[in-house]
Amino acid sequence: MIRLRQVLKRYGSTIALDNISLDVSTGEIFGFLGPNGAGKSTAISLICGLVKPDQGEISVDGLDIRHNALEVKRRLGLVPQEIALFDNLPAWDNVEFFAKLAGLRGALLKERVSEALEFAGLADKAKGVPKGFSGGMKRRLNIACAIAHRPKIIIMDEPTVGIDPQSRNHILESVRQLNKLGSTIIYTTHYMEEAEEICSRIGIIDHGRLVATGTKEELRLLVNEEEKIVIEGTDLNFTCLEQIKALGLVKDARTKGQSLEILTPHAQTILQDILFILQRNLVKVRNITLVEPDLETVFLSLTGRKLRD
Ligand code: ADP
Ligand code: MG
To answer: Does ligand 1 come within 6 angstroms of the Cβ of 40?
Structure first.
């Protein structure tokens, strides 16, 4: 659906995107995860044809954007990082303006504008002007503007920065919903929780380089962090601990108060064996927790720095 090959973009002496190759398939929610200045917005501007690459090729829906800029734009809905609205025009007119730009007219135009406002949870604010809206409402209106023409591909650039939790949840739910309705989504964020929550695949980006791409499970496997199994129970004894330590995949095991912590590269594989040992030693298990390395750990391990400074 979206294909980048060895794309390079410079701003003066800054390399904003450094030789990026990427494929996003139809139906995905693909996330660019990276800190400020990583190159997320640049990648999006390139995909939308808003800026030209210095090197490399980009195609959308099989169309090379160099030769098919207009056709590509019709297939896209962009929610830019900076909110772009007419502050003194009613919400309805804002959506209508962008829907007209995308080619909608007449009865269909009205229908789609109404549908988009409804979708953004702003049906009752159609006559209100953005000037009086909260940050979250403006953001949702901006989304309505981008989706009224029902684009095949929806691109959202950090749509949840600086807004209230309720609007945030609404937006994340909208992303899932739009995807279910058939749109391919590209989503950028510096919040790893969001990327984990909604993205089917994630590209980790730092200093203009795409350092890794994969599902969150695939990304976790890239780092040599151990998983941790925490077992809470009564009558955890020394024999039991020694038997668990003797299991092949156990890196380390120790008791901590009334719980037992086991470090292993493969928790799922050995869980059954551990439970068997506990049962044989008459341990009464109250709770088992599996702690996996998160994307923050992955980012740190791949780039040597934290996602948020
Ligand atoms: P992100 O969206 O991940 O925060 P950007 O794509 O905005 O990152 O920026 C990537 C790099 O390119 C940064 O170093 C930024 O300062 C630089 N950059 C982005 N846009 C411009 C521009 N229009 N002119 C000069 N430098 C830019
Ligand atoms: Mg940005």
So the answer is: yes
| Rounded Cα distance, 191 and 194, in Å | 6
Rg (CA), the chain: 24
- Residue 235 falls in which region: left (phi positive, over 0), alpha (psi -120 to 50) or beta: left
Atom of ligand 1 nearest to the CA of 17: 10
Per-residue model confidence as pLDDT tens for the chain (309 residues): 999 999 999 999 999 999 999 999 999 999 999 999 999 999 999 999 999 999 999 999 999 999 998 899 889 999 999 999 999 999 999 999 999 999 999 999 999 999 999 999 999 999 999 999 999 999 999 999 999 999 999 999 999 998 899 999 999 999 999 999 999 999 999 999 999 999 999 999 999 999 999 999 899 888 777 888 999 988 888 888 999 999 989 988 998 888 899 989 888 899 999 999 999 999 899 999 988 888 888 888 888 888 775
| Smallest-distance ligand from the CA of 36 | 1
- One CATH from 3.40.50.2000, 3.40.190.290, 3.40.50.150, 3.40.50.300 for 2-220: 3.40.50.300
Q: Identify which ligand lies nearest to the alpha carbon of 33.
A: 1
